[in-house]
Design a protein that fits this description.
By secondary structure, the chain is an alpha+beta fold. It contains 3 helices and 8 strands. The chain folds into 2 domains: 2-71, no CATH class; 92-162, no CATH class. It has helices at residues 70-79, 97-108, 145-154; strands at residues 2-7, 12-17, 24-25, 28-36, 42-48, 53-57, 124-128, 140-144. Strand 5 and strand 6 (53-57) form a beta hairpin. The protein is globular.
């Protein structure tokens, strides 16, 4: 839906694209209007088909921005599949904490149910079983934050604040 808005101070007419709640454009579904910036660009909260939510400028939705960023990753993996696995020249066996967790999420998907208490709401994380953080997918379980903290305290590996 197109709407002409008259700016009384500058006496200029600007063309704005109004997006409707629930409207689907490419991989994005419009959830809600979020805000206007200083230049009066409308920003919308969108949900991607992969489940991520992102705030995107309305004028870019469907033209420049088609997803939360997952589409770009899929295209890169499709064009160069050798860069996304152990055969890559960039592969490292020992990587940092964040990189290993991103690798687990990429290979096992987003954690969605706690293995201990069965919760499926709130923040669910992948937890390393033996606390050695190696590239072994069988060495990770899904835990909610409270079970994850209890698990780490029980195994003397809690790094949080006391």
């Amino acid at each position: 839906m197109l709407l002409f808005v008259v700016d009384s101070m500058r006496q200029k007419i600007s063309l704005m694209h109004m997006l409707n709640k629930g409207q689907k454009i490419s991989r994005l579904t419009i959830l809600n209007f979020d805000h206007y910036n200083k230049k009066r660009d409308a920003y919308y909260l969108c949900r991607c088909d992969c489940g991520n939510e992102k705030i995107i400028r309305g004028s870019k939705i469907g033209k420049i921005t088609h997803s939360c960023g997952c589409l770009r990753l899929e295209i890169v993996r499709r064009k160069k599949p050798e860069l996304s696995n152990e055969k890559s020249h960039l592969w490292k066996e020992n990587v940092g904490y964040r990189a290993i967790h991103l690798w687990v999420i990429k290979n096992k998907g987003k954690a969605n149910k706690c293995s201990h208490c069965g919760a499926n709401t709130g923040k669910i994380e992948w937890a390393n079983i033996d606390h050695k953080y190696r590239r072994n997918l069988d060495d990770y379980i899904q835990l909610c934050t409270s079970c994850h903290r209890d698990y780490d305290i029980k195994n003397n590996n809690y790094r949080g604040r006391w």
